[in-house]
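Continuing the batch. This is chain 6 of the set; chains 1 through 5 are on the previous pages. Same settings as before, nothing changed between runs. Recording input and output for traceability.
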Amino acid sequence: MPIFVTPFASLDLLRQPEQRDDPLQAFDAADEYLLAHLHEQGLERDAQVLVLNDGFGALACALASHARVTSSGDSHLGFIALQKNLARNGLSTDGVGFVPASATPEGPFEVVLIRVPKTLALLEEQLIRLHGHLAPGARVIAGSMVKHLPRAAGDLLEKYVGPVQASLAVKKARLLFATPEDRPTPVSPYPTRYRLDRPALELVNHANVFCREGLDIGTRAFLPHLPTHLGNARVADLGCGNGVLGIACALTNPEARLTLVDESYMAVQSAAENWRAALGERPVDIHAADGLAGQPVDSLDVVLCNPPFHQQQVVGDFLAWRMFQQARAALVTGGELWIVGNRHLGYHAKLKRLFRGVEQVAANPKFVVLRARK
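Output for chain 6:
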């Protein structure tokens, strides 16, 4: 693996989840540019530094021995990567504080380093939460690869922090420097809400929830075909998002015992609020996790899944395949994995490599609903 060489530290970093012969690095030129600029401008020892959306901990690990670092992001896999990479490089795992994006980091911060996230609603919510947590003279610097840097990111920095100046591009990366100015206390437009007719639900969606402003078309294709007559089955909604699949399943299976998991903290926050609104105090386990990695073997009867096809800006079926493997391990013999997927992804063939029976439950021109039996 390439070593991440910075003016602050040289680090051996891993991505999460790990995969053999991973061609991708846990850092990029935008991380290098941010740290090189910070070193050039100077960083006082023990300065309070906030790092936002630090994909696999590259920035926080580099600064851990030089400042009081708080990292905040919406990825539980990112948190796992941070912990593993601190330990891997001989750094204390207690040396960097972590705040999930569903909470507000407490300042005052002298330096804020931001990796511009794919979802600009997440960036907007994070900038809103910075209000009142910047020290006098604070430096706010955002970085991104140019191909992933929309003009709207600079507009948001200008709106919520202050005037913005862009750097020249270096190795196809660019920095945005925001000079903090007094701004009125902002009102967040998040969470957003939308209604469903079947089942009759109003769903809360925090800033980084997938398809925040309306039901995604894959879930819409899946909902009419969710399993019924499950009795007291143990059911997991894997990659639950705002929880709609798990909630809909619970409504039609009043004795089923549900677990809802997602690697997004804001998804878990949304799912928990939506569950309470729809089902009150009915017992449920809703938590952030690396899929079903921590689920005991042979502990589930049914797994529901609308698998993702990307991690950050990287598109592929690695995460989906991993979810299928996790589901197989967690299911009892005879247990079932129910999924929805784009026709062209060929999940039917992939599932046949793991499960003894795979059948098509429903289909439309774009999606298929599949049931795989262990």
